[in-house]
Each structure stands twice: as C-alpha cells, then as structure tokens.
Amino acid sequence: MKKNQLLLAFYGDDFTGSTDAMEALARSGYRTVLFLEAPTQDMLQRFEGIRCVGVAGTSRAKSPAEMTKEIKPIMERLSRLDAPVVHYKTCSTFDSAPEVGSIGEAIRTSRELFPGQKTVSLLVGAPALGRYTLFGQHFARMNGEIFRLDRHPVMSRHPVTPMHEADLRYHLRMQLDEEIGLMNILELEGEPEQVGKRFREKRKEEPAVILFDVLDEARLALSGRLIWEAAEEGERFVVGSSGVEYALTAFWEKAGIASSGHSQPKTASISPSDRILAVSGSASPVSQRQIETAMEQGFHGIRISPVSLADGGSLPQEMLEQAIRLLNSGESVVLYTALGPEDEAISETRKRISDEGIAPSQVGEHIGRQLGRWTKHIMQQSGLRRVVIAGGDTSGFVTSEMGIYGMEMLLPISPGAPLCRVYAQDERMDGIELALKGGQFGGPDYFAKVRDAALE
User: Fold this and answer.
1) Which InterPro entries does UniProt cross-reference here (predicted)?
2) Which overall architecture, per CATH, does domain 8-255 show?
3) What is the reported pTM?
C-alpha cells in the first residue's frame, strides 16, 4: 500500500455535515483530513497515512448558479485524485430546494466530470444518526421519537428549506427532472451475490439516480459493498449523507481493507477546558434547548442583536468586550442569534439585513461572516483555544473568516458533531480545538460536554 493511498474523497455541502462525514470515517480508523478548499498532492503529503480527504463547502446555503460556481472546480479537483469513490455529501435530512441548496443541481454539475457514468447512487439514511429510508420515504429521530420527514417538528418548518415531501424521489425530482430508481428494503434482502445481481439489473436500465433504502446496519454494510463494486466498474460519483461513509467503512472492515492504524492526530493528551466560547447561528429547537441548558450550567448567555448582525461596517464593541471580559475571568460564554424557530429576532434580523440591500440568498453568508469575524476577534483577545460553532448553514462562513485551512477529528462528543483539531497558517489559530454542530445534532448538554472533553 502506498503511504497515502486514498479510498474516498468527499465534498460536504455545509461544514457541520462535513465534520459528520469525517467522524464516520475517523471513528473506524480511516485517517481523514477535512480541508476548506480542494487540496493539492503536496498538501496531502503533509499527513502521513491519510486514507480519506474531504472539502467542507457552503453550497447548501446557495442558489443554483452560486452552487455551480463553488462546486465545479472542487469536484473537478477531487475527481482527479486517485480515490475510488468521490462523494457529494448532503445533510442526513436532505435539506434542499430548487432555489437553494439544490441537490439536483449538484448532481447535474458534478456528474459531467465522470464521463461514462450513467447512474448515480444516492444513500441518505444513517441509523447511527437516527435517519432511515423505507420505500423511498425518509424518517428522522428527534427526542427519542421517529418522525416522517414531512411531519418532523423541525424539518417540516425549516426556515430556508422546509421539507413538505418525505419521499426523497419526489423531493429530488423537483430539482432534477429525470428518472430516479429505488433499491428498496426488500430488494436488499438475501445473499450478497443475489442482492448484487438485482442492483446490476437496475443499473442496466440507466436511471439518473438509484436511491437506497436504509433501515439497519447489516443492510447498510451491504449497500456499501454495492456502492464500492459499482465504483470499481466506473461509477465513482455518489451522493448522500454520512450514511455513505458509514456504509463504506462497514464494508471495508468486512473486506479487510486496511485503515490508517490511527483515527486522530498524534497528541499527548487532550485536557478539559476551564472556559469555552459557543457561537450559535442556529434557530432550531435543539439548539435552543442546548443554549438554555448551557446557561443553566453556568455559561453566560449573550444575545446578538439584529442591529449588530445587519451592520457589516463596524464591530459591536460593547458586546465583544463583554464576552472577552467574561472569558478572561474564567467564565464560559454562549453568543446566540435566536432562541428557537419562533424567536421574533429571526424576522427582524432578515428585515434589517434586507434593508441593507442584501439578497435573501445571501443572508446566511452575511450572518456567518459576521459571526466569524467576531469569533476570531474574541479568540485572539482572550487567548481562547476551544470553541463551538452551532448552525450548519452559517458554520462554513464562520470558519472561513477564522483563517482555517483544515481540520481533523480529535474526539467524538455526540454523533455527527466531534471535537476537531484545526490547521491554520496563522500560529494564533493553528492547533485550536473546534466543534461544529448542525442544528439537529447533540444532546441538551452538548456545550458542557465540549468544554469538559478530555483524553488521557
């Protein structure tokens, strides 16, 4: 085996989802580095034993034209890496719409880079995250209960991409008007050779996409085998959630495909932090509960005003100085833009940003870049070395403002939201510990768990 023989390259449509995919690979021992732009071979050689590489993007918050501009050069670079599988990573709740974060547009843009590939495999379910697909219908767990996606308390009311259709084939057809097949749960039953024959027969019909049902770990591993075998036959480009990574690692382990021998960057130990900064741009009920719980556990909460978010010309000095003063006194701080989806600050913020002449499709980027500039300022003034960013749509813009070029998992905290080690050219930022979590991830005490995370 070559020193850095890649198995997989992926692009994540938001940052929190990208760390989710990285965690799925790293926890199985496959060393994975997540970059903020497509890496060169020289960059990859810095990381001994790397088996998988990812690029964290922001396409989920963009219009189709903006998506194409971002995705195409990155996917072109990834397609030229010597990786058998190239994955466009979506959210496990398939957040998307024709006008923003279009997965159909991502498929149209990317598949032309894989000449000769007629069919794209699509796998969205991930049992480890409480995500399941049955006869094309998608389900997601929340607070211990499983909801069909169009009845999910959060996803059916998502402020940007509300999910009104649970059948992923119909939802995707609104973005990609082409044939979408299904490898249903019954067709995934039986001996692997028998199931493989069924899958090959479906591929012969050359649908644009074949969606996999996902219910349990056994059939997920079998789906991983089918995706890997199709890649060996030239169908390298796949789409879906971190379920793709969970499926492939399950198959790789059964097939004896070697891992890196270690799943995290070499470090003597990871110590708990006496103080952290949590920054939330999420309006989900899950994030709301996490913010409220953190404040109950001693975090000092600071609400970010809509006026500050809208004003891109100056720093909110009073708020920043308050946060720095508290951190320097040993307190942990949570900055937040909203408490749940009903918070009146959401509509006020959107109105004020609109009044500044910023288009609705640019709101997420505007908020994210504001939060990123403020986060970096606070960290540099306080000497802080551990931070949490909550909110999938804004986290990518936050991290880009922080001057980071790569990340690697240090410790799992909650499925889909690990603690990472940051790589940056700026010595002040290099080596900081960063946790990125989407709005639906983590338990109520997630922020405290990040603060207290340790490894001897």
Assistant:
1) 4-carb_acid_sugar_kinase_N, 4-carb_acid_sugar_kinase_N_sf, NBD_C, NBD_C_sf
2) 3-Layer(aba) Sandwich (3.40)
3) 0.86
